[in-house]
Amino acid sequence: MPENRSSLFGAQVDRRSVLRYAGASGIAVASASILAACTGNFSGGGSATGSKTTTFGSNYSDPAPKAAFASVVAAFQKQSGDKIKLNTVSHNDFQNNINNYLQGSPDAVFTWFSGFRMKSYAKSGLTLPLDDVWTKIGGNFSDSIAKASTAADGKKYLVPWVTYPWAIFYSKSLFAEKGYEVPVKWTDFTTLAAQMKKDGLIPIAFADKDLWPACGTFDYLNMRINGYKFHVDLMAHKESWNQAKVKDVFDHWNEILPYHQTGSLGRIWQDAANAIGAKKAGMMVVGSDQIGAQLTGAQYDDLDFFAFPEINPDFGQTAVEAPIDGFMLSKKGANDKIATAFLEFLGTAKAQQTYLGVNKADIATAKNADTSGYTPLQKKAQTFIGAATDLSQFLDRDSLPAFAADVMEPALQSFISSGKFDMASVESQAKQKYQGV
Amino acid sequence: MTVDQAVRPETITAPRERRPTRKRLKTLSTTDKVVLGMMVGIPTLIEACLIWLPSLASIGLSFGRWDGIGSPTNITSAGISNYTYIFTNYPSFWPAVLHNLIWLVFLAVIATPLGVLLAVLLDRKIRFTRIYQSIFFLPVMLSLALIGIIWQLIYSSDNGLIDSLLGIAGKPQSIDFFGDKSINLWAALVAQTWRHAGYVMILYLAGLKGVDLSLKEAAALDGATAWQTFTRIVFPVMKPINTVVIVITIIEALRSFDLVYIINGGTNGLELLSALVVRNLQGEGQDLGVGSAIATVLLVLSLVPIIIYLSRTFRKDRTE
Predict the structure, then answer these.
(1) Do both A133 and A268 map to the same domain?
(2) Rg (CA), chain B
(3) Of B134, B112, B297, B241, whose CA–CA distance to B189 is shortest?
(4) pLDDT confidence bin for B319, thresholds 50/70/90
């Protein structure tokens, strides 16, 4: 969930809300349900179901997206005459409380993410399939986006909203000045990194204090070496973590690890992105949602990206990591006609463009969106995602959240500091986490 | 007090008769019984609801598996597998136990004595003492978000205060206070001391104000040095405050969570048991069984000093 943790000083400050729940001892947290039994139902949210009103739970709590969402809701109300009550919750609170929220009195429509995270809530029965909505909006989306909105039972549960690509970002003027060429093959990439080091640059800007950024490099290495299918199966733990294919990923990573910016475990990604903006670093594996919002003005205009290089020719560069945000319909909320109509509205290019407005970091998922207002970087991102045969969603969206947060992110940090990835330990932890999933 | 007041109306209307005071206390009106019952019952109920039931539920959950979705009937029995997992398979667990111990020793040996030292110095009526007190106490009052920014500004390896002063900020040889496993625990402990010492200082200062001045004067007349006065006279007199400070130090060490959590979420050399509990319990990534098992371990660890403290206190009460 990278974009949802992008605050000035990294992930954790935002999450101070957690403290409120954890209190002095974590014990109280474990017993939330018992507490509820003591004090009555405490989960908030409003599902006031008037005849012409439905509710919408949003986690877009930063000022700019919040205002953008208000204008989307206003546009729908103007068009249909129905009313939408918008409940905005701080995004970290929203994610941390999602289980209680969906089981309490949730809003009819709520913001969520594609990937395993969507699939697990589809499977839990706490959300409803949206095949009816999709018969109306299906034409607006490419096959890969449609696939990313489909759960394990073959039904669609997500109305896609905005997206952005992960890629290798660089400064155009720096590449021109030094005469660097965009690498396509792995060896080109390692040669270029070595050259940058020789030229006194940091070849690969890198930060992993926030725990999630390193996942992007892992995802791309795995998809380039072992293919999209294997990646998805590994994320779902249908494949073992303790096998030669996984070792291969970390062997490749070890080849480029010396070119990574040192001290990455203490650095927030914003500082790494700034090293690209300041032309102190050559390249960075990052999402456009992050670096495209962090760098502004001339630094933004100088920004460009290329696809993660090809490693195994069987898989080329066809898979792209493009996390998709979207909307789901809760089962306990009011599943009425207005909610459906609102979802249909959200699935149009018009609504997405209303939202994007002056946003220069993300792009609409609707393929018929008007791209005339896009920056060159956004246009390139649009083509880049459109050309992909498979879209991955990022490790913490593609795998079991408990596994991503408790097992994989710490294991990647330990790999970054030691150059060793303990596959046996990760596999045995994965067995514990994926039990009964 | 309440009993006396409640009884009074009755004694006024009733015919005057001499009764021994003791007997009067035994006869409680219905109102008294209700009031007393509520005074005892409501706190007990709150305590049971908010502390005992959750604690017991947490212990129960630690023997089960649940992802937090659906009714509690979805909990399946896991036997002791959650415990075997954290003891044998979970790479963060033993470092967390070790770090909690280091945390405790560091607070007990460095942070708390520092707070006491500050209090004693500030009690000597030096100039601007109130300003110093405010400065040292300020960190205790700051919000977590601010503390996060402050230490980010100080410790950042790209543009932080320390590395900038050393002239190595942003260079490969810069000191990575947050990311380097071998030093980030100590960096966090410095930040913790910054807060903890101020807290202890205020507590101790309040105690020192209550020490009878004539004791110090007598000691001075007998020719005791400042050090002798403190160790032989003031410190023993301050026994109740000392106990409070010791208990607070232990509690702070065990529940310590916020600092490591804002630094990096409690990973990469900053694992603490409380942070692991939260990592396993919050959000979608809920693994209630494992989180509860760690919470239970923490509970058992916390009970040890509490039981020692309570049993000592009660033993003394009985003998006095």
Answers:
(1) no
(2) 26
(3) B112
(4) low
Look-up of token digits 């400070």 = B245
Phi, psi of B183 (to 5 degrees): -125, -10
Interchain CB distance below 8 Å, A417 and B181 = yes
Of A19, A126, A432, the CB nearest to B258: A19
Chain A interface includes B285 (CB < 8 A) = yes
Lowest-pLDDT choice from A202-211, A260-269, A317-326, B233-242 = B233-242
Based on the domain organization, do A201 and A342 belong to the same domain? no
Question: In which band, very low, low, confident or very high, does the pLDDT at B169 lie, cut at 50, 70 and 90?
Answer: confident
User: A213-235 and A244-256 are packed helices; what angle lies between their axes, rounded to 10 degrees?
Assistant: 160
Provide the ipTM.
0.74
Residue A253 lies in a domain: yes
> Reading across the β-sheet that carries A281-287, which strands appear in turn?
A202-204, A281-287, A166-171, A303-306
Residue A105 placed within a domain: yes
> Considering only residues 49 to 108 of chain A, which have any Cβ-Cβ distance to chain B shorter than 8 Å?
95-96, 98-100, 103
C-alpha A367/C-alpha A352 separation (Å) is: 11
> Is the distance from CB of A93 to CB of A40 less than 8 angstroms?
no
Q: Are residues A87 and A146 in the same domain?
A: yes
- Could you tell me how far CA A189 lies from the centroid of its own chain? 25
Residues A194 and A288 grouped into a single domain:
yes
Query: pLDDT at position B285, please?
Result: 64
More confident residue, A164 or A8: A164
Q: Chain B: residue nearest A399 by CA?
A: B285
Partner-chain residue, chosen from A16, A30, A435, that has the shortest CB–CB distance to B58: A30
User: In angstroms, rounded to a whole number, what is the distance separating the alpha carbons of residues B180 and A417?
Assistant: 8
- The domain total for chain A is 2
Give tens-digit pLDDT for A359-401. Answer: 888 999 998 888 888 999 999 999 999 889 889 999 989 998 8
pLDDT for B7: 43
A237 has a chain B CB within 8 A of its CB: no
Q: Is the pLDDT of residue A40 over 70?
A: no
- Upper half-sphere CA count for residue A43 (Cβ side, 13 Å): 21
For residue range A12-22, what is the model confidence (pLDDT) as tens digits?
A: 333 333 333 33
| A120 lies within 8 A of chain B by CB | yes
* Closest in B68, B180, B283 to A266, CB measured: B180
> What integer best gives the mean pLDDT of chain A?
86
The C-alpha of A164 sits at a distance from chain B's nearest C-alpha, in angstroms, of 23
Query: For residue B159, with 0-12 CB atoms within 10 Å meaning exposed, 13-18 middle and 19 or more buried, which class applies?
Result: middle
- Mean pLDDT calculated for residue range A51-61: 82
Domain of residue A215: give its range.
Answer: 166-321+400-434
Helix (H, G, I), strand (E, B) or coil at A76: helix
Residues B108, B246: Cα–Cα separation, whole Å:
8
Q: How confident is the model at residue B26 (pLDDT cuts 50, 70, 90)?
A: low
Which pair of structure tokens corresponds to residue A404? 């991503």
Shortest distance, CA A135 to any CA of chain B (angstroms)? 30
Length of chain B, in residues: 320
Q: What is the pLDDT of residues A327-361, one digit of tens each?
A: 999 998 877 888 999 999 999 999 999 999 878 88
Tell the CATH topology of B92-282.
MetI-like fold (1.10.3720)
CA distance A206 to A323: 20
* A424: contact with B, CB 8 A cutoff: no
Inter-chain residue contact A30 with B57, CB threshold 8 Å: yes
Domain CATH for A257: 3.40.190.10
Sign of CA dihedral A187, A192, A198, A200: negative
Contact A207, B178 (CB under 8 A): no
User: What are the tokens at A147?
Assistant: 């696939």
Strand blocks (E) in chain B: 64-65, 76-77
- Whether A7 is in a domain gets the answer no
For the cut 60, the answer to whether the pLDDT of residue A27 exceeds it is no
